DNA sequence: TTTGCTTTATGATTTGAGTCATAAATGTGA
DNA sequence: TCACATTTATGACTCAAATCATAAAGCAAA
């Protein structure tokens, strides 16, 4: 997260998007640095038969879509608004200027990218070698550690739908539902009127 | 890749490792920045029943294992020598000093991490939503674009064993062998005395 | 409050990658 | 050159997750 004043100094403009709006499309060239002021954004892919994979979900104060920006490559995934969002957009050229003139920001960016790589590494190993229950549990634990899920007397409320968990972990909804039920039986998590707690 | 002279200025020492040596273990805290002078290194995980997943393979002039270094987190995977390797190691503290005193290097690091995130994004989507042939082909194409595989009249020689392709794409050897055979039939690649060309 | 959409849920069936067994070709080191 | 490990290869069988079908609960908006 970069200070809003700094972004504004480099020509950031605010854009507002409503639910389901597409911020950018897979395959397009990046033109902006994006930082979320409010709302929720996901990055996703679709395979040939329309099956979705969610690369990540991003919230207030988080940025997204930087890697292709730094590499001058096409976006490997699309960005879609999940909850109405206000987003600061800094044009590529001025963002690069910002970086060059503010070395401390580079370190922030490095930490941010490192964090996301870490997540991808863990999930890659999960997805390719572990069974569904393990995958679901790991995803939930990662989400607790990284998103600000609310904690109450039942534990952390996992603010994902079963479908989202599936799309993040490469499983089908039904499989996620069954995995969650089974994990509940094993005492790994709780289901209280359809909401998942851990 | 950071200039060797610069690394030496910040106290880099060279260590030599032989095939199968473990440079660091999953779960340990990072203490060094590593850059390869010669040889080949893989980063990998094992799941509970001993199945391997290869996070990435690294060659001359490449660095590896930085994300946890920047985050003060445990390594999410181990680093194992694939071909005898000479490696420059810079102690964490002096590497951080190097970064602070050389802002241009930060940009390099950012580009490097961005590149790896890009790969992980593509492979994550592949692994979780595509069939084996697609996964194998994408991995091969990525490898051609990023490693210096040799090109001759038959095309690029894919310098991976079937097992390595499997461990990188989350498939079993037999499945990879069958996928490659089928891709050959479809004309997507060639097999010339057991070697894969594309 | 009615209508329609999303989310959770469950059972039956299918299927494709994993598993197992086996072997030949190749490479490596003693 | 011999012994052993690695890599590629193929066929038969298994099984777990995907698929398909269906439905009820919840929610959102008209």
Automatic annotation (TrEMBL), chains A, B:
Domain HTH crp-type: 130-198
PROSITE patterns hit by this protein: CNMP_BINDING_3, HTH_CRP_2
Key words, A-Z: DNA-binding, Transcription, Transcription regulation
GO cellular component, one term: cytosol
Stored SUPFAM superfamilies: cAMP-binding domain-like (SSF51206), Winged helix' DNA-binding domain (SSF46785)
Domain called Cyclic nucleotide-binding: residue spans: 15-116
InterPro entries: cNMP-bd_dom, cNMP-bd_dom_sf, Env_Response_Regulators, HTH_CRP, RmlC-like_jellyroll, WH_DNA-bd_sf
GO molecular function terms attached to this record: DNA binding; DNA-binding transcription factor activity
This protein's record includes keyword Transmembrane: no
Name of protein: Crp/Fnr family transcriptional regulator
Species: Flavobacterium shii
